[in-house]
Automatic annotation (TrEMBL):
It holds the Pfam family Acetyltransf_1. Transmembrane segments: none annotated. Keywords: Acyltransferase, Transferase. InterPro entries: Acyl_CoA_acyltransferase, Diverse_Substrate_AcTransf, GNAT_dom. It comes from Nonomuraea jiangxiensis. SUPFAM superfamilies: Acyl-CoA N-acyltransferases (Nat). GO terms for molecular function: N-acetyltransferase activity. It comes from the Bacteria. Residues 1-155 form the N-acetyltransferase domain. This is L-amino acid N-acyltransferase YncA. Belongs to the acetyltransferase family.
Length: 158
């Protein structure tokens, strides 16, 4: 079963975020708190959305996503920040069901893109996405500003 998350799901969401970060060898980078997630997901101006996969009443996976906008197409799209299914539940169709839910949201709302990034060493995920028909965008390089470089660019002076 796939359903939108509620505020009560925040502890489970944060647990899975930590599990995913550990899998991606980046557990030390997780700084999110339950309070931050509650505000970001369920506050007055939600910044992102979460759908959960459940099996027998247990949360076994999630997607966290937010809206993007394509200037070329002139319509919004979805950026999938995270897709995670707990290891003991992989292979049960939960990842596919979560992706189908996002695709259905795109279809219902007239969005024309569903995009995400995957680590280059994550062969099981790459294989899963390519089986869905996803196309790797090798010509696009991803960049990120965080912490001090972001503050410097913003003109923050300490």
């Amino acid at each position: 079963m796939i359903r939108p998350a509620t505020s009560d799901d925040v502890p489970a969401i944060l647990d899975m975020i930590r599990e995913l970060a550990t899998y991606e060898k980046a557990a030390h980078e997780v700084r999110a708190t339950e309070e931050q997630l509650r505000e970001a997901l369920f506050g007055e101006h939600p910044a992102a959305f979460v759908h959960l996969a459940e099996q027998d009443g247990e949360v076994v996976g999630f997607t966290l996503w937010f809206l993007t906008f394509s200037t070329w197409r002139g319509v919004p799209g979805i950026y999938l920040e995270d897709l995670y299914v707990r290891p003991q539940h992989r292979g049960g169709g939960h990842g596919l069901a979560l992706m189908r839910e996002l695709a259905a949201i795109c279809e219902r709302r007239g969005y024309q893109r569903l995009e995400w990034a995957v680590l280059d060493w994550n062969e099981p995920s790459i294989e899963f996405y390519e089986k869905l028909g996803a196309v790797r965008l090798d010509e696009w390089l991803k960049y990120r500003l965080t912490d001090e470089p972001l503050q410097r660019l913003a003109g923050r002076r300490d």
